[in-house]
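#random but structural
TW: two for the price of one
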Amino acid sequence: MTQQSVAAPQPVPTSDKLDAAVLKVAGVVVLGALMSILDVTVVSVALPTFQSEFDASYARVAWTMTGYTLALATVIPLSGWAADRFGTKRLYMMALALFTIGSGLCATADTIGELITYRVLQGLGGGMLMPIGMAIMTRAAGPNRIGRLMAVLGIPMLLGPIGGPILGGWLIDVASWHWIFLINLPIGIVALVYAQLALPKDSPQPSESFDFLGMLMLSPGLALFLYGVSTLPEAGTFADAEVWGPMLVGAALVVAFVVYSFKPRHPLLDLRLFRNRRLTVAALTMFVFIIAFMGAGLLFPSYFLQVRGESTLHAGLLMAPQGIGAMVTMPIAGMLADKVPVGRTVPFALLLILAGFFTFTQLDADTSYVLLCGSLFVMGLGMGGTMMPVMTSALKTLTGHEVARGSTLVNILQQIGGSVGAAVMSVILTNELNGSRQIPGLTDENGNPVTEAGLAIAAQQRPELAQQLPDPSLVERGLDFAANSFATTFWVAFALVAATFIPAAFLPRRRERSHLLDDQPGDQPGDQPDDQPKIPVIVH
């Protein structure tokens, strides 16, 4: 990951407003980010469909999300080095093409293994869209308007939670699951044409060396560790070699990476930045929050689909209040981040999230939809007031020459947190559901015992199954057990959100100026002073 000073033809803008030239470039970046973020939320409503389509456990199909976010984390640090070497426009268009091709391949998958593989390919492209897009926008707008810049980039984050589940649900209901990926093909082609016309011409420059050895330790280490965790429900015990083997090797690789990362001059992740107390507090707050919120967020549509028997479209519509809540607070939070210390705003936002989460810890098979949708709206309000302020606070603690390395660190932690959250929450839910009472003499197509919860969930989508049962109360008992399993999983998420208050208590409560423009030419080895103003290129 690199950061370098780019000579600007004109003085850095001082106005708080984003002019037409910046908005033209922003349109390209927002379109790419919308594709990447929509694909996460679209797939969230499809997980139960994947379960039935590929006859796989929830922990297994959750790897369509975990693999995607791990791929995002892999290419984030690679993006800055490649942007310098090949140019931002060329690399951004390559990322768009890779994401679009990956989407097309996902639609052709015949097994869950193939789908996970193609999702990883998608993630390799999607992971470069946001960091390269951020670099392009920061170069165009300058660092004085980072809060408003974040607000613009927040547009796809607002639309994704609202439009993604609805779009995914509608496509699955009226066509098939394949179309949640095929829809990206026309969008990707339009984005490629737009990028070719709107983005400024590339000017590649010599780049720092890239830490390939670090990448070969961190990415496989995380993947192996999480794979071991995700196999626990099927294995049933940590003593199984398929569980502890990958976990042990993965943990060893991650520890080796941490030890090694202090040696190179330009490491994959600059862990030395954790000496900055404010960066450490902001990163830790975000990491714990992401594990809880993103991990549990995958389970909301699954509850509506599997326990309540809703269609995928209705499940998507029921998720909309969360996105609407975020839409209300995210633009306000983006503006306040430049004026009010985050230590005074984020704790209130976390309280809203905690209040919303509590409702889901009390789930049963017929909890009021009014209560659930209201709670999702309150959680959305809290989410919109948490993410952007914390990330902005982390960036503001850094000087110009540190900002690229710091933003890389923060963003890769965000993706790792999402991967950990998806894997852990899906494992907890699967393990809880596996505890349901088995039905004597009844097995599935593979000869595995059928549980009351499993049969009740299947009966919600195929009512004829319930009519064939000698004991009608079996479905009711199964649904009650499934609802309790979801509630138990949400208790874990609730506890993690509560734990977020610990690092959040140390967020800055006094207004401090940004250090992004502190560096003067010649501060870093090899810098040559000139008469042009310098714009830090932020690789997000």
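TW: number two ↓
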Amino acid sequence: MTTPDPNGPVARLLRYANEVHSLAGRCGRADLAEVLAGSAARWKDECTDIVVAGAQKRGKSRLINTLVGHPDLVPVDADVATNCFLSLRRGPKLAAVVHRSTDAGPVQTPVAVESIPEYASMRGDAGKRRDVVSVDITLDNPLLDGLRLLDTPGVDSLTVGHRQVTVAMLQRADALLFTLSAQDQPVLRHELEFLAEAAERVQAIVFVLTKVEDSANWRSLMEENQARLRTFVTQAVAENPDRAATLNPLLEAPWIPVSSKLAEAAEAKRREGRQERADALRARSGMDVLERHLRGFADGRDFARGATVVNAALSVLGSLGTGAKDDVAAGSDDENDVAARLAQVETGLEELTELAARRRAGAVANTFLGREVAGIVAARTAEIRQPYENAIATLKKQDQIDRYMAELPMSVQRSLEAAWSQIVYDVERLSRNTLDAFARDLGLDPVDLAVDRRALPNLSQIQVRGDMAADAPENVDMVRDVLPSASIGLSLGGFAATLLGPVGFILVAPAIGAAIFMGRRSMEKVQRNQAALRSALRDQFSLVSREMTLDLERMVATWRVNVEQIADESLMRRRKELETRRAELKAASARSAEERKKARQSGQDRMTAIDTLTARGMELRKELAAAVAALGR
């Protein structure tokens, strides 16, 4: 990394961050100093991290494949698995390493590149996906020189776990590519909310409109997207003017229309030797414009990282300002100043009491999660069982039943194993939605559930048997079995007698009667076996459902207890902070006039320093924002 210009914004930012860090230390707020140190920790990382995010079916994964020149590298038409991301960086050869987080610690496993979807996509094998945190892919592509592309799960509102993983990745991002599709609906509310959250962490943001090759009205769709973004930002800033600094830059972010399809066609023409046609298709694809932005991010990563550090510094200054204002108020000769600050603290304590009541009510509502888990398991297992019952109804012969019964246990086991991953996913999604709402109601950040990618419960060997008594000797019922068969045999025997005479009657009537008798017995045996199979199948699925439900209820109960414990700790910490402030204000007001004067002067000096640093930070943020906006242009 080159040494920054001593008078440039980056060098001034480093000096500024050191000053804020020192002020936090002098104020006795080591916790705030640590926040700022953590934000600047990645400064020496010479690889620019670019997060690629968007909802499912927005063309995100195909875009990444096109950028790196490997159409089948990243799974397309299947979302990245929950709690997993894909990292693409430059290396000497095409290779992939799966990173897992296990009870024994992190585990790295090299895998074949073609098997990446099995480990990293929602259509992959549930067993292979278990515990996977990321897949690190290396390939020799000049575009990735100094760049790392991070493909993240979709940010759709129904996949809360996906969204949280993507938001977490923004903590390490220098830039964000947010994808929208020209062949899909305009930007949705949950996507806008994600962007607002992203803008608090990342300043270098680019909107990429994919799939423009087959859309005649992509320009009007892009304008509608921009209008929706403008309306969202305007309303959000009107509700909270403090968000203007982070949200308004979204309105200045560039929009780049691209077509992976045209870029791939250009490469095909180039291989055919049709350079002029290839160049025309490549220009239409928009990929060159996007690549210039990516290289701009790599060359100007100091600006992007600087913006993140400034945001952290301004947040630290805001927290320091609260303590300084308390000291000024406590040292005031006007008792109304202290009374006003105390009133604010008392209001905060009253709000915490209300939150505590809502926490208790929310905890009661959370207890019903177990019932909903049982409903999910019952619905999914019923979906699996029904095709088997339908198949049983089609079995008309005993040999068909015998073959079906031989294959049934293993078939049911495979079906349950395949469904288990989806059941866990459904339960996890339900729990996240419920517990996230609980946390938001208490003013907490979204929950972080410890998902362990659970294995299927250790079910006993599937046992589904037919009517074991069907093959046992059975008493003959004269009325039910013999008389109907004999009657039909005599009738047909009489018909044979008219044709063949008495001999025909003697030969035909008994044979027909015996055939009918055996046919009825065989048909009844099949029917009994069908009924027994259906009954046994239902019993087995009922047992499996109970075992699955019990296992998942334990998992959900653990999540619920952990989240409620975090809520309790947060409420207790906030109450302690407010009670400490109240005690300090009361103690300060009881000091001597000289002591109050010193406290007031100390608070005023800190407020002056904080105001000066805040003003400098705002100017630096504007300067860095302009530098970031110019990257790639």
